[in-house]
Amino acid sequence: MAVALRQSCAVASVPTSRRVAVVVRASAGQINPSIRKSEEKVADIIKVANVPKPKAVFCRCWRADASKFPYCDGSHVKHNKETGDNVGPLVIDSTP
Amino acid sequence: MAVALRQSCAVASVPTSRRVAVVVRASAGQINPSIRKSEEKVADIIKVANVPKPKAVFCRCWRADASKFPYCDGSHVKHNKETGDNVGPLVIDSTP
Ligand code: FES
Ligand code: FES
Fold first, then answer.
1. pLDDT tier, A28 (very low <50, low <70, confident <90, very high otherwise)
2. Beta strands, E only, chain B
3. Domain named Iron-binding zinc finger CDGSH type: which ranges (chains A, B) (predicted)?
4. What is the complex's ipTM, to 2 decimals?
5. Which candidate in B42, B60, B61, B76 is best for mutational testing of the A interface (most A CBs within 10 A)?
6. CATH architecture of the domain covering B2-93
7. Torsion of CA B58, B64, B65, B68, to 10 degrees
8. I need a surface site. Which of A2, A30, A40, A65 has the fewest CB within 10 A?
């Protein structure tokens, strides 16, 4: 998600030798860092009959392991802890 | 999503008068900018009987209008266009 952005200080009056570069990790604003990036849009269509029972937990944080997505593997916990975010899964509950 | 981060250049050898502040809009890495931020974790549990038919389209971009979330309102299109991202919804298909 994040790209390294080399941001130079705009200090024209300071000699070149004194210029510094501030390296900032700046997000390009993408929320999917790595899942199926070769696809133009990652949409998943699941027949209701194929939805795991009794509860299907679907990832909305785009941090689940690629082998688990579109299902949640708990990775949102680490993401939330690291960033202060509050994202979580969608649960489809097939119990009566 | 983004927070204004005041990043000073670390140029101890440059007189104070020449120091500059670089103001960077740096993402804190959060992927949910505004939805139900008072909740510690936004999880949605939907009974399968209440899943809209014939197709329920669920938001995974956290950009849907708050009045529509957890359903997709197409806002992922703008997000993808602006950032080069490739996120899209989860569709639960109740057709036979
Ligand atoms: S791993 Fe993504 S929502 Fe749980
Ligand atoms: S509006 Fe969020 S996935 Fe469509």
1. confident
2. 2-8, 21-27, 42-47, 55-58, 87-93
3. 41-82
4. 0.76
5. B60
6. 3-Layer(aba) Sandwich (3.40)
7. -10
8. A40
